[in-house]
Design brief:
The protein is an alpha/beta fold and 130 residues long. The chain has one domain: Macrophage Migration Inhibitory Factor (2-Layer Sandwich), CATH 3.30.429. The protein has a four-stranded mixed β-sheet with strand order 2-1-3-4, with helices on one face. Helix 1 links the parallel strand 1 and strand 2. The longest helix has 19 residues. The protein is globular and about 45 Å long. The chain starts with a strand and ends in an 18-residue tail after the last strand. 13% of the residues are buried.
Length: 130
């Protein structure tokens, strides 16, 4: 049940690249977190330069304007090893398929619980199942 937000600098990624970024994120989620393929909710946000700030070298990682901020809100319960392998796989996929620099793949996982979600209709579907 992940909800994915991707922020990037406008004009850095185009309408052909965004679906591929989406696909790579979903592929890594399915492989490493066993997310069902139809559990697919993602939004992409293009930002003007005046709205997009980052450290170009925090932790000695050289970032460029091709930076992708990827925030994934999901149910808690993944191990540290699962998370580390997910980060690695996602950076590898984006690098291999779209030539996005691994250094420009910035990921934040936000853990939540079942009661924190409604998928519509004002019902907490994950805790109000028949």
């Amino acid at each position: 049940m992940p909800f994915v937000r991707v922020s990037y600098l406008e004009n850095k990624y185009d309408a052909e690249q965004l679906p591929n970024i989406s696909r790579d994120i979903m592929s890594a989620l399915v492989e490493h977190f066993n997310v069902p393929e139809d559990d697919f909710f993602q939004v992409f946000h293009a930002h003007k330069a005046s709205e997009f700030y980052y450290s170009p070298n925090y932790l000695n990682i050289e970032r460029t304007d091709g930076l992708l901020f990827i925030q994934i809100t999901l149910k808690s319960g993944r191990s540290t090893e699962q998370k580390k392998s997910f980060y690695s796989k996602l950076a590898q996929l984006l690098s291999n398929t779209l030539h996005i620099r691994k250094e420009d793949v910035f990921v934040v996982l936000v853990d939540t619980e079942f009661e924190d979600w409604t998928f519509g209709s004002g019902i907490a579907q994950m805790i109000e199942r028949p």
